[in-house]
Design brief:
Layout: E1 11-13, E2 20-22, E3 34-37, H1 46-54, E4 64-69, E5 79-81, E6 84-86, E7 88-93, H2 101-105, H3 111-115, E8 121-123, H4 124-136, E9 141-142, E10 154-157
Parallel strand pairs: 3-10
Antiparallel strand pairs: 1-2, 3-8, 4-7, 5-6, 9-10
The structure holds iron/sulfur cluster (2 copies).
Length: 164
């Protein structure tokens, strides 16, 4: 997806959750897209750990890490007051992510996508299909804004519920 495609009237600010939302057209999705279906993410960190192990990173170094969308006070800390607690998660792909090029060029899935136990991650043609399916279910489809300095070509679908 080009930088140009992320600007202009396609980009709008979401008043509900303070995230800059974008709606890339289907034709703008790159071949090596990673799709994150936030409706399915349970914040288990398997994506991060499988990347760290598979790519031989030192302990604690992550190309993808998992943010808690909750109280803002740390990992797995919900917002609200018991028993009315709320929390969701967002895998964040850093610019260090190499999209597992050696693997994908050999026809394998990226470590993170292959090992997600909840089918929240998709790559390539599978991702493009799932993006369209999420769009059909009414999810908001977006990329993180440039100031997040994340990996290009990572597209999210909002959960069909409020993000806190
Ligand atoms: S994307 Fe998958 S592996 Fe990563 S935290 Fe979410 S559910 Fe776990
Ligand atoms: S695509 Fe590969 S390099 Fe990027 S976060 Fe996933 S496992 Fe790590």
């Amino acid at each position: 997806m080009t930088e140009k495609a992320m600007k202009g009237p396609m980009a709008k600010r979401d008043p509900e959750n303070n995230i800059w939302a974008h709606s890339p057209a289907k034709t703008e999705i790159p071949d090596d897209v990673i799709f994150v279906d936030l409706l399915r993410c349970t914040g288990c960190w398997t994506c991060s750990l499988s990347c760290m192990t598979g790519n031989g990173l030192p302990d604690g170094r992550y190309f993808v890490n998992v943010r808690t969308l909750g109280s803002g006070e740390g990992i797995d800390r919900p917002s609200g007051t018991w028993p009315d607690l709320r929390m969701s998660w967002m895998p964040y792909y850093t610019h260090h992510c190499i999209k597992c090029k050696p693997r994908t060029e050999a026809g394998e899935l990226p470590y993170c996508v292959k090992n997600c136990p909840n089918k929240a991650l998709y790559y390539g043609a599978d991702a493009a299909e799932k993006i369209e399916a999420a769009r059909q279910r009414g999810a908001r489809i977006y990329q993180l804004p440039e100031w997040e300095h994340g990996k290009d070509g990572v597209i999210y679908a909002s959960p069909d519920r409020e993000i806190i």
